[in-house]
Structure formats: C-alpha cells, structure tokens
C-alpha cells in the first residue's frame, strides 16, 4: 500500500479503556482483535474486508509492541492454513477474506483445520459479499460451516455487537476446540458507529514463544485412524460443547414480550432490517423495542434446539428470516419441530423470497405477509385495508441507462483491450476467457471481450479444453493479483506442462488493484515490510515459458496490437504469454498529483498533458468511444442546425494517458484528437522561442485569413445582420 | 388462537429519524460527502449511521451511500443499513440519470422526499457508443422528478464545482445545506468541510455558490460569456460584398428554409469559396423547384442541411485548414485552462492512408492509381503511417499550413470528383420520387446522415448508405415506403457493424 496512508485509522487502534471509537465496522473489528489478545493476524484482501488488511499493514509499530504477527497471505487457502498455529498452541489467531469466494478457496485448509480441531481460538472473519454492490456470484458461506463443523457467527450489525462477537468468537472456539467464522455482511463492514474501547492485550503466548518451544501431537493430524476419531469428536464433544457455551453465555438474544401468539427468528445480521420493517408497521419503537418477540441468532451454526423450542413454546406461528438460499435454518428448525412433535406453524421462505437481498421493501412485505397470515390483529388498520393508490410516477425504466462498473479514467487496461478488439477485427473473433479483477470489465461494452470467469488466477486454466490449438488460438486474461494468488502454478505452470498452444495476456498494473491497490510480489513500489519488485516475466521464464513478451507501456497501442498479432499467428507451439505492464491510474494519480501540484507551486517546469477533440473535425460517429469507454471521453451536442449527432468531447477529468491518440492512430480513426501539454513555469529561453514561433504562425494565419471570409466571430445564419 | 394486540400508530419519535440517500457514479466523491454529513450530524448532537458498498463493483458504476440520523437520547436508536422504497427523506443525486434511477427504485416519493439533483450528465457507456444519438432523455427524468418528489432542488452542481476548482461533493453539500432539509445551521456544514482539511477553500467556494442557488431555487448564471451576436463575417470589402449578394439570394428562398440555408451557405463558403456558395444555392434551387409550399417546403429544408454537409466533405485539406486556423488555438487555451504564465504544446494525431493521399491527386491520375491495388499498397507503405505533429512547432505547422492552403486545387482532385458524383446521384435518387412520393424523397435526403467519419468509419458509413438506399428501392412502391426508409436509417445508426440494419433489411426482403 505504497500510495495510501492509514495513519488516521492506525491511531484508532491505539484507543484504550473507556475511550470511544468512531468509525467503520471493519476497523472496529480490527481493534477488537487487538483487545482480545490475538497472537497473529492474516488474510487476503477483497471488498468488504480489505480495510482490515490495509490498516494492519500500516500498524507495524502497534503490532510489534504487542508481539502480534501480521502476514499478508498469498491466498485465502494460505490464510486459513496459517490458523494451523492455533492447533497445537493456545494462541488466538484471526484471518480475514471475502465470502463466499474466499471461503471457497480456503475450504481445503478449513476442512483440515476443522478436523484437527484447535487449542487456541481460531477466527475467520468473512466479509459476506451478497446483495447490492456485490461483485461475485450470489451464494452463502453458511454451507461451509455445516459441512466442516465450523461455527458461524452472524452478529447484529452495530459496532458494539460485532466487536463483542470477536471476543465471544474466540471464547467459543476455545470452549469447543473448533474454528469459528465471524460473518459480517458488506454493509456491516462499512457501517459507521461508535463503541467503548478497552486496552489492547498482549497474547498470553506469542508466536515467537511458541516457536521457541515447539509442540506436536499426531492425534491432531488428519490421517487414518485419527481422522475417524476426529469426526466422532466433532459430533460427540465439540458440537455439544459449542451449544452449551452459546446457551450459557447468551450469545443468541431474545427481545420483545415473553408471551405472544407469534414470534420472529432471525439471523443477527438481519436485525436492523427487521426492526425497520416493524417500525414501519408500528410494532417497534425508535430503540428497537418490539411488540413481536424476536429470537436473534448471533450464532447461526450450530443451532441450539432447546433455545428455539423454548422460544416457540406457547406461540401459534413463527417466522424465520434467513437471507439467501437455500433455507438451511428453516429446514433445521422444521426438523426440530417435527421431532419435538410441535404443531406451531413455521413460516419463512413462503412469505419471503428464496433468493436475493432482503431489502427494506422485501422485509416489510415479508413480515406484513406473515402477520396477515398468522396474526392480522397486529397490523394497523390502514395496512389491513389499504387506502386508494397513490398518483402514478412516470416509468423511467426505458429512459435511465444501466451503469455497470468500468475502467477508470486513464486506466492502463483500456489500451490492452482496445488492441484486443482491433486484433479480433483483423483475425476474427477468438475464444477468450476472463479472470477476476478490474480487467473483467472488458467483458462489458464497449469491448465485450471474454465470456467467462472461473475463479481467481484461473483464467488461462479455464481455457484448457481449447489449448490443443487449431485454426485459431484461445486467449486468456490474467491479472497480476491472480497471477500470484494461484495463476502461476494452476494456469501458467500447467500450460507449460501440457504444451498448451495458447495465448495469455497478463495485466500487470503494479497492484492488486481491484481490491484497493495492495502491493503484490511484482509491485514496483518500495515497501517497508515486504519484498517487492519480483518481475512476472522472470517468474514466467522460471517455470519454463519460452515465449514471453514484456510490454512496459500498455498505452503503446500499435505495439500492443503487433504483439497480440504475433502471438496469435506465430509458428511457436507452447504457451505464449504477454505481460502488459503499466501502473494503475487510480494509484498513480494518488501519488503523482500532489507532487505535481507542489512542483508547480515551487516554480519548477511541469508539463501537464490532456487530450482534446476538434469539434468541427469530429463527425459524430463515436468509433473512438467504441474503443475506449473512458469516463472522460464523452459526447456533447453542438449548437449547429446542420449537425444531427453529438460529437466526442473530453472533459477536464482527462489525465492525458494517451489512449485516445494511440487508438485514433492504430485504428486509423480520425484526425480530431489532439494532445495539449500545458507547460507550467517554462524557462526564459523556452518562452522566448515559443514567442517567435507564435509570431510567425500568427503572421501566416493572418496572411491566409486575408484571402477569405472569417466566420469565427459570427454565429450560424449571421449573414442576416 | 391469537390474542391480537390493539393496532396502534407508528412511534411518533420515529419521525425524528432522517433518512438520506446519495446516488452517485463511482469516483464522484460520494464517500467524502457522506463523511461530511455524518460530521455535521454528530457535531450537532445527533446519533448517525452511514453505510456504503465500496469496492470494485462501484468503479465508475452507479453506487449508493445511505445515512440515517436522529437526535441523541439516552439509548441508541436502531437504524437501517439500506434505504427502502417510499422511506427516504432526502435523496441526493450526483448526476441526472442517477436521479432517474432513484425515482425508478422508489426512493423519491411525493409524501416525503426532497430531491437534490445535479442536472449535469455523465453519459453511460451505452449512451456513447451508438453511431447515432443515444443520449438518454433528460426532460423525461426532470418531468418525473417534479411528480415524484415532494420538493426538488435541481441545477448543475458539477459546473459550480468545476468553476470553483473542486469536485461535486462540495456543491452537493452546499445544496443540501441550502435546502434546509437538515436541521443544522450553515456554519456547522462549513465547519465539517474545514475539519476535513484538504482543498478547503475551493470546497467552501463551491459550497457557498450551491447554497445560494438552493436557497433561491435558481441556478447561478453561467460564468462563460454570452454568445456573440449575429454579425456578418469579416473580410475584404469585396468578399463581404459577394457574401451579401449570396445571403440576399438565400433570403429569396421560402421562409421555412432560410435559416438552414444560411447555415449551410456559411458552411460551404467557409469550406471552399464564394463560388462554391453559389453552387450550393443552385443545387438548392433545383430542389426547391420540385418542392411545394403545400408540403411546408420540408424537402428543401432537409436538402439545405444535407447538401451543405455533402459539399463540405471531410478531406485532408479541410482537416489541415481547420487545424491551422487562429481561433482554434484560443479555443484550446481556454479549454485547457492555459494562462499567460504557461505555454501550450499541441500534438496532432494523424494517420493518412493511401486513399486520402491519392484523393488529393488530379482526378484522372488518381483514379488510375486507385484502380491498381499494388500501387495503392506501395503508397500506403510509403506514406500511410501514424504521424504525430507538434502543430505549435514551425515545421509541423508549415506542413499542415501548406496542405490547408490547397483549397484552390481542391476542385481538380479525385476526391472532389467522387464526392460530386455521389452528391449528384443522391439528389437525383431523391428527386426521382417527386412529386408523388414526397415523404419518401425527404427520407432519401435524410439518408445522407449515414455518411460520416474518416477512413474505415467513412467506408462503413458509405456501405450502410448503399444498403439503405437499396432497401428503399425495394419498398419504394409501397404506401409506407417513407416509414420504412426512416426505420432503415435509424437501424443503421444503432450499431457499428450494421446488425440492426441487416435485420431490418431481412424484414423488408421477406415481404418486398
């Protein structure tokens, strides 16, 4: 994280007993880890938990004082594997990644860890990326907890609750010798609020202490016959121990009146949404005092049948509010009720949708639907018999354009995909596979390059079926983040092994850019605590790729185009890899803009480039935009009755990356583009020379103008005056 | 059975919760705005909660921030983490279509919502990529906003921000403060900006202008000067006299045609010379003779537009001429914010092909060369490469200047001959439908819109034009021929490759 500083956030990690933390949920969790004597922390970045990693990376001093080890892991599997330190040693460890994709990757290690069992508290903080704003497939991490017998916490989404869950999670893990997943949804990670802090705690046993006094016990190794014993231990000892701990320590909560005809069971993460719906129905007050009894599952796995059956006692109907599919909780509750011979009516996915985020409207409709069925007396009169419909608001669904994410202004990936689009124009459409990262935006218009994404670092691997070659070659995309995460072995190494006749483009933007600009091995930045500057091209050669082309300026579209053309047409058999390197513009601007402004203020000579379009030369065909999609390259309507279509126009957000000019050249588009470099603080000689030039040019221009009419000062139709 | 409790009204204290959503485009600074709003609320003794969905999914895409607040009591209120349809008090849209999206999602309702929206547009990719005009209809959104919102505060907040040297979060914040929708004094808002510590002065400037605009419900006047009044072009008295004669002739045209004809006249004279202007008027007169007042002179009006565009074709000479004119440099300086203290360097990106170079040759010679692919390929190898010219340097300027000065030669070039033939054929094709198929003739004239661009784009345009014209021939005898011609043209403007056009042509062939 060379380009951003988290000093302010790090300061919040120092707060002591009796002070108040104000900030985001994920940072509060980070603070809570330190308060609970964590001995080591790791993880793999990704929304919504990147912030935890970023801040800890900048908090070396605090971590060193406390004797806490911090590791930026290579992947979620690596992060989970690190929790092995808690198997034999009573050290609390925590790792974080996004769910469910990170849990997918980590599941191999997670299953082994769960079988071995833990001595020290082991916590996986899962940032569940579900619902609006999510960038991944819509699934639940819940299933992983069920299959591996790992406990799953889903605390109420406010800072006191989620920070309390950190301590409870460690204790639950230790009481039941089982790893715990603490799930926080995307909005809970970014929710702001306050909580009372405590002093940070040094771990009772540090990893250094443990290393000095190593332990091992083959009973913990996942090998027969111990693995069979471990399975029995899970269900006979650890599971009941966890249920006992949950019950005795009141991890789940009950709110509202003790006796009522109906009740609602909910995941902790759903609490605020449920309260809002009840508030809107007049059944809860500002502080969440509800007239409907609520049973809140801050631990969603394992469930505690005694608690649930006790909650159901004396009620006619109960509603389970469980976001996502399938309805694991509802099924489990149904089994509990059936076994207990209960006759209470169980509602859930019958009044709420099986799939999709439980938004405000969904929650309101669901709870209202439940009450209408089970206890209509609860509903206010107007809800029971709605008044007349409100005046209709015009339907804008055909007017408002969709706005999916895309490449930022000046993104170095844009010219790569412009060149790929052009090369397909020449050689025909190709089989192209995408990967995870910003470069996946290329599958959207205007590029529409790539038709699949199969997992981080798996782009080239996902083309394996096509790698025998044929009339055309398959093309795959891989980012630098994906390359180091998994791609080097799974995608590249194996392509060498299988003599794949394939083309891979590695998008090297110097960071794990999509997750917030973290450094990776090949980053060019100096990093105080990490070893960077390991070129991808060297790693490629190291694993035996014989055809590697390194491009150090992706904006050189003609070169990019020629290299792609060569890769697709060369006689060389075996994998062909192009490493296209240019720095992520977001991070580059973050670093360079303040420096440039300072240089201008200091009176140093600075050239500030920006692109422009000659509006009278542009014909309004928009071919340039179909090879760009840059936010700063837009359209404007001219005040000219002769023109039908809006012309291209570049706004002041242009960073002068050069793509427009390069593309206009390489695609032989049109001569409307120009680059204007404003020279700040020019030297005296430069200024004088520019003055002479301008004098001569001005004289030539006047000379020509004398021979013709000058319309520049008049407007269209000006002859009428 | 159920012992229903008595239904009751919602907790009156709930009315104290203010719900505010910000709909923005990723990169607009929505996070900064949200931080400021939280800051103001907290400083004024409110409990406040904000949420967002940061991450890759919002890079330049539509994104949403959500804030709830209520007066601080002895117990914490329970806030929602996401906005609900019909339950938003203040909706801030950092772009006009995002306001539209908010309305679409039900976040703007007449019973409660104050809509604060910037009227500027950040075009979505789908609006920009069409070969024609794909820009979404802003009027529809504004009209819907007036119905959907309890109160609207809409003006161009982006412009205020840019003119103040900052980003839109500052002017949105000013508009929010000025709206009075939050119960906090102006000073508290300004303190929040000061507290953030970066770019404070520029942010406060934008804040103040937007505050005033929101208070008076009127956008501040545009900073740029008003357009110059309509005046005659400047030039030697001889030229001005000739121009006057041309405009006098144009003014004898039917009234509905005059404005377009004068614009066209200006374009072609600017492109070539006075004589070219006369040719333009002659062509227009031919069309006018076939036209009639009964049809409102629509044919002549359309012809006035498209004949001018066809005559002022985009050749190398025109491009070089436009790139070397004096006012251009002034326009670039203004656009780039260059001051007297700075210098300006301008780089042109040119990539002439053999076709453009041969197009400059005398028509006979040029045609012979063009018919010989081997020679064309040789010329392309020799000349047809990307050139980057620093047009502020003397050598590069001189090259462009000489090219731009070839106007006198233009009438002898191959390109001119080709363009003249095409123009003649097109006009003849249109007039062939007169007088019986008046609407179809108008549509044929309008088909000229498809020809635009340079190089491959130009060739593609020509090919689409040809296909549309062929399609029109197939349906010419039908009563609804004009409708089909219009449909074909619109289809041709839908996508680059002409897939929509091919579809429309298939339909035509199925019945024609």
Keywords:
heterodimer; A: 721 residues; alpha/beta; Rossmann fold; 4 domains; seven-stranded mixed β-sheet; five-stranded mixed β-sheet; 23 strands; B: 512 residues; Pyruvate-ferredoxin Oxidoreductase, domain 3; six-stranded mixed β-sheet; two-stranded antiparallel ribbon; 23 helices; 8 strands; elongated; disordered N terminus
Q: Can you give the mean pLDDT of chain A?
A: 94
Radius of gyration of chain A: 31 Å
- Please give the alpha-carbon distance between the first and last residues of chain A: 64 Å
The top level CATH class name of one domain in chain B: Alpha Beta
Strand order within the widest sheet of chain B? 2-3-1-4-5-6
Terminal CA distance of chain B: 72 Å
Backbone CA Rg of chain B: 30 Å
Instruction: Tell me the domain tally of chain A.
Output: 4
CATH topology of one domain in chain B: Pyruvate-ferredoxin Oxidoreductase, domain 3
Shape of chain B: elongated
CATH structural architecture of one domain in chain B = 3-Layer(aba) Sandwich
The CATH topology of the largest domain in chain A turns out to be Rossmann fold
Number of helices of chain A: 24
Q: Under the CATH scheme, which class of the largest domain in chain A? A: Alpha Beta
Count of DSSP strands of chain A: 23
Count of helices of chain B?
23
The chain pair with the largest interface is: A-B, 153 and 165 residues
**Major β-sheet of chain B, in short?**
6 strands, mixed
Can you tell me the overall shape of chain A? Answer: globular
Protein described:
The complex is a heterodimer of chains A (721) and B (512). Chain A is built from 24 helices and 23 strands. Chain A is globular. The N and C termini of chain A lie far apart (64 Å). Chain A has a 7-stranded mixed β-sheet, sandwiched between helices. The model of chain A is unreliable at 716-721 (pLDDT under 50). With 721 residues, chain A is α/β, with parallel strands linked by helices. In chain A, helix 2 (25-35) packs across helix 9 and helix 13 crosses helix 16. Helix content of chain A is 37%, strand content 16%. Chain A folds into 4 domains: 7-248, Rossmann fold; 253-380, Rossmann fold, CATH 3.40.50.920; 413-587, Rossmann fold (3-Layer(aba) Sandwich); 605-706, 2-Layer Sandwich (Alpha-Beta Plaits), CATH 3.30.70. In chain B, the strands form 2 sheets. Chain B has a 6-stranded mixed β-sheet, sandwiched between helices. In chain B, strands 7-8 form a two-stranded antiparallel ribbon. Chain B is built from 23 helices and 8 strands. Among the domains of chain B are: 16-216, Pyruvate-ferredoxin Oxidoreductase, domain 3 (3-Layer(aba) Sandwich); 434-512. Chain B has helices spanning 30-43, 96-104, 125-128, 138-148, 157-163, 168-179, 186-196, 200-216, 237-250, 255-271, 274-290, 298-311, 316-323, 326-336, 354-359, 363-370, 373-383, 394-404, 414-431, 438-446, 455-475, 481-492, 499-511; strands spanning 18-25, 46-52, 62-71, 90-93, 114-118, 151-155, 343-350, 387-390. Chain B has 512 residues and is α/β, with parallel strands linked by helices. The chains are: A alpha/beta (721), B alpha/beta (512). Chains A and B meet through helix 10, helix 13, helix 16, strand 20 and strand 21 of A and strand 2, strand 3, helix 2, helix 3 and helix 4 of B.
């Amino acid at each position: 994280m060379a380009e951003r500083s988290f000093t302010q956030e790090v300061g919040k990690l120092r707060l002591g007993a009796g002070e108040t933390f104000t900030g985001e949920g994920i940072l509060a969790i980070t603070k809570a880890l330190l308060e609970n004597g964590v001995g080591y922390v790791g993880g793999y970045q990704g929304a919504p938990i990147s912030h935890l990693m970023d801040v800890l990376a900048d908090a070396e001093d605090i971590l060193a004082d406390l004797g806490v080890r911090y590791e930026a892991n290579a992947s979620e599997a690596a992060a989970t594997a690190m929790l092995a330190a808690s198997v034999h040693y009573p050290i609390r460890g925590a790792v974080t990644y996004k769910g469910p994709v990170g849990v997918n990757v980590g599941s191999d290690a997670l299953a082994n860890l769960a079988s071995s069992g833990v001595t020290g508290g082991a916590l996986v903080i899962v940032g569940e990326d579900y619902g609006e704003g999510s960038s991944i497939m819509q699934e639940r991490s819940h299933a992983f907890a069920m299959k591996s017998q790992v406990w799953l916490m889903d605390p109420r989404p406010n800072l006191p609750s989620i920070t309390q869950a950190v301590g409870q999670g460690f204790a639950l893990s230790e009481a039941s010798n089982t790893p715990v997943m603490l799930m926080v949804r995307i909005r809970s990670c970014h929710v702001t609020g306050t909580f009372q802090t405590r002093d940070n705690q040094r771990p009772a046993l540090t990893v250094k202490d443990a290393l000095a006094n190593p332990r091992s016990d083959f009973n913990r190794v996942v090998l027969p016959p111990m693995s069979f014993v471990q399975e029995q231990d899970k269900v006979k000892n650890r599971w009941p121990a966890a249920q006992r701990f949950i019950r005795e320590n009141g991890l789940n909560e009950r709110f509202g009146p003790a006796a009522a005809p109906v009740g609602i069971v909910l995941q902790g993460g759903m609490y605020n949404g449920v309260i809002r719906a009840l508030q809107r129905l007049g059944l809860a007050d500002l502080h969440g005092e509800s007239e409907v009894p609520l049973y809140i599952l801050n631990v969603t796995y394992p469930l505690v049948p005694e608690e649930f059956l006790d909650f159901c006692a004396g009620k006619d109907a109960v509603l389970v509010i469980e976001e996502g599919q399938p309805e694991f909780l509802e099924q489990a509750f149904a089994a509990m009720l059936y076994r207990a011979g209960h006759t209470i009516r169980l509602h859930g996915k019958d009044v709420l949708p099986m799939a999709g985020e439980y938004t405000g409207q969904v929650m309101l409709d669901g709870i209202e639907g439940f009450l209408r069925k089970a206890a209509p007396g609860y509903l206010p009169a107007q809800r029971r018999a709605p008044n007349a419909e409100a005046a209709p608001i015009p339907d804008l669904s055909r007017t408002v354009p969709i706005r999916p994410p895309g490449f930022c202004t000046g993104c170095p990936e844009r010219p790569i995909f412009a060149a790929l689009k052009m090369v397909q124009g020449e050689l025909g459409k190709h089989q192209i596979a995408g990967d995870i990262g910003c470069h996946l935006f290329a599958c959207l218009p205007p590029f529409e390059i790539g038709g699949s994404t199969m997992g981080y670092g798996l782009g080239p691997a996902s083309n394996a079926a096509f790698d025998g070659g044929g009339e055309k070659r398959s093309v795959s995309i891989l980012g630098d983040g994906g390359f180091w995460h998994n791609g080097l072995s799974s995608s590249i190494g194996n392509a060498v092994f299988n003599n794949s006749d394939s083309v891979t483009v590695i998008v090297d933007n110097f960071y794990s850019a999509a997750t917030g600009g973290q450094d990776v091995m090949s980053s060019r930045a100096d990093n105080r605590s990490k070893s960077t500057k390991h070129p991808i091209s060297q790693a490629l050669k190291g694993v035996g790729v014989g055809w590697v082309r390194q491009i150090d300026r992706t904006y050189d579209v003609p070169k990019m185009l020629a290299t792609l053309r060569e890769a697709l047409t060369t006689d060389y058999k075996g994998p062909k890899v192009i490493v296209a390197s240019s720095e992520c513009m977001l991070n580059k601007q973050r670093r360079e803009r303040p420096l440039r402004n300072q240089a201008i203020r200091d009176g140093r000579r600075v050239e500030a480039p920006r692109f422009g379009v000659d509006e009278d030369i542009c014909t309004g065909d928009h071919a340039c935009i179909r090879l760009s999609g840059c936010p700063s390259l837009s359209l404007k309507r001219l005040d000219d009755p002769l023109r039908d279509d809006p012309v291209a126009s570049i706004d002041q957000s242009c960073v002068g990356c050069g793509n427009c000019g390069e593309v206009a050249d390489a695609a032989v588009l049109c001569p409307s583009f120009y680059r204007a470099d404003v020279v700040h603080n020019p030297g005296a000689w430069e200024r004088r020379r520019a003055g002479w030039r301008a004098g001569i040019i001005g004289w030539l221009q006047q000379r020509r103008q004398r021979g013709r009419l000058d319309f520049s000062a008049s407007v269209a139709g000006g002859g009428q005056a | 059975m159920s012992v229903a409790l008595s239904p009751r009204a919602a907790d009156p204290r709930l009315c104290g919760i203010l719900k505010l959503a910000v709909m923005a485009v990723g990169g607009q600074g929505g996070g900064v705005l949200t931080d400021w709003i939280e800051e103001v609320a907290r400083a004024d003794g409110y409990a406040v909660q904000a949420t967002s969905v940061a991450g890759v999914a919002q890079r330049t895409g539509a994104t949403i921030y959500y804030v709830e607040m209520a007066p601080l009591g002895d117990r914490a209120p329970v806030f929602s983490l996401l906005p609900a349809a019909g339950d938003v008090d203040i909706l801030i849209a950092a772009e006009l279509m995002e306001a539209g999206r908010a309305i679409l999602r039900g976040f703007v309702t007449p019973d409660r919502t104050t809509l604060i929206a910037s009227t500027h547009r950040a075009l979505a990719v789908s609006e920009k990529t069409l070969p024609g005009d794909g820009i979404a209809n802003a009027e529809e959104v504004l009209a819907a906003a007036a119905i959907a919102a309890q109160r609207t505060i809409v003006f161009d907040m982006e412009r205020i921000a840019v003119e103040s040297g900052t980003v839109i979060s500052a002017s949105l914040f000013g508009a929010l403060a000025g709206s009075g929708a939050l119960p906090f004094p102006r000073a508290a808002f300004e303190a929040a900006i000061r507290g953030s510590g970066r770019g404070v002065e520029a942010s406060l400037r934008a804040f103040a202008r937007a505050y005033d605009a929101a208070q008076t419900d009127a956008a501040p006047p545009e900073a740029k000067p008003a357009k110059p009044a309509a005046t005659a072009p400047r030039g030697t008295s001889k030229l001005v006299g000739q121009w006057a004669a041309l405009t006098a002739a144009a003014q004898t045209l039917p009234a509905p045609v005059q404005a377009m004809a004068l614009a066209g006249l200006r374009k072609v004279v600017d492109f070539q010379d006075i004589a070219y202007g006369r040719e333009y008027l002659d062509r227009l007169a031919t069309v006018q003779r076939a036209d009639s007042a009964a049809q409102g002179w629509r044919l002549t009006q359309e012809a006035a537009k498209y004949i001018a565009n066809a005559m002022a074709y985009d050749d190398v000479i025109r491009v070089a001429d436009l790139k070397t004119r004096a006012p251009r440099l002034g326009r670039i300086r203004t656009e780039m914010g260059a001051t007297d203290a700075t210098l300006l360097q301008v780089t042109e990106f040119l990539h002439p092909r053999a076709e453009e170079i041969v197009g400059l040759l005398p028509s006979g010679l040029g045609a012979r060369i063009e018919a010989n692919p081997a020679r064309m390929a040789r010329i392309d190898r020799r000349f047809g490469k990307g050139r980057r010219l620093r047009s502020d340097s003397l050598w590069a300027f001189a090259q462009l200047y000489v090219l731009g000065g070839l106007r006198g030669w233009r009438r002898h070039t191959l390109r001119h001959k080709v363009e003249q033939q095409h123009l003649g054929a097109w006009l003849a094709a249109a007039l062939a439908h007169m007088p019986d198929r008046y609407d179809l003739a108008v549509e044929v004239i309008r088909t000229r819109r498809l020809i635009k661009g340079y190089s491959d784009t130009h060739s593609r345009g020509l090919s689409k034009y040809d296909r549309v014209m062929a399609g029109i021939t197939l349906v010419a005898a039908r009563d609804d021929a004009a409708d089909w011609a219009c449909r074909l043209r619109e289809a041709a403007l839908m996508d680059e490759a002409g897939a929509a056009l091919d579809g429309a042509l298939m339909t035509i062939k199925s019945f024609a």
